[in-house]
Design a protein that fits this description.
- It contains four helices and seven strands; from the N terminus they run H-H-E-E-E-E-E-E-E-H-H.
- A hairpin with a 5-residue loop joins strand 4 and strand 5.
- 19% of the residues are buried.
- Helix 2 packs across helix 4 and helix 3 packs across helix 4.
- A seven-stranded antiparallel sheet has the order 1-2-7-3-4-5-6, with helices on one face.
- The chain is α+β, with helices and mostly antiparallel strands.
- The chain has two domains: 66 residues; 91 residues, Umud Fragment, subunit A.
């Protein structure tokens, strides 16, 4: 009498169902999104020594609609060029800021350099902007992330932004560890099936 154990052991294992494949795909997409958000909101600004701001009005449509995250890098006024988008204080020393495009330059009565700015969607220019008002030139901008920036930044204590960033990285690490564990389990199962050959009795 001859029995084959290896074949039955192999066919008894069930391949992952469609829901597992869908879950794996969703997890990969979510992980990618988490990493990109963390890079845009935390890592890149830290590397560039820049500040994140949120566009609240439609003055920069269509390039930067409301809810856009803008990251502005400190830049000397003498290095700002026409066409650059700058973030500047409405009044020097006060927190309220505006992000508009530079459309011209000039000189104040005392000889100081001033910038002429205008929102892309506006018909008229802003009041002249002095060097002391400039917070930086926009290095990059990301749609919709401004809402997240507002939630964890302007309306929450400063530590909330750090906690949110730590949470994003912790989740990303957890997803990576889980994926590595799954790959190891599948490899082990494959090795077991391969080494189990026919057994005769």
């Amino acid at each position: 009498m001859r029995t084959v154990v290896g074949r039955h052991a192999t066919t008894a294992r069930q391949t992952p169902g469609g829901w597992r494949l869908l879950a794996a795909f969703a997890s990969s997409v979510l992980l990618t999104a988490v990493v990109l958000v963390a890079l845009a909101m935390v890592v890149a600004p830290a590397v560039l020594r820049a500040m994140p701001f949120t566009v609240l009005t439609g003055s920069m449509r269509p390039t930067m609609p409301p809810g856009t995250l803008v990251v502005s890098r400190p830049t000397p006024a003498t290095d700002v060029r026409i066409g650059d988008v700058v973030t500047y204080q409405v009044r020097s020393g006060e927190p309220a800021v505006v992000t508009h495009r530079v459309v011209g330059t000039g000189w104040a009565a005392n000889g100081d350099l001033v910038l002429v700015t205008k929102g892309d969607a506006n018909a008229v220019t802003d009041a002249p902007v002095r060097a002391a008002q400039i917070r930086g030139v926009v290095a990059y901008h990301v749609p919709y992330l401004g809402y997240v920036n507002t939630w964890v930044g302007h309306n929450r204590p400063h530590w909330a932004a750090k906690v949110a960033a730590a949470g994003l990285f912790a989740y990303a690490l957890w997803m990576l560890v889980g994926a590595a564990r799954d790959r190891k389990s599948r490899a082990t199962a494959t090795d077991d099936e391969t080494t189990m050959g026919p057994v005769s009795a």
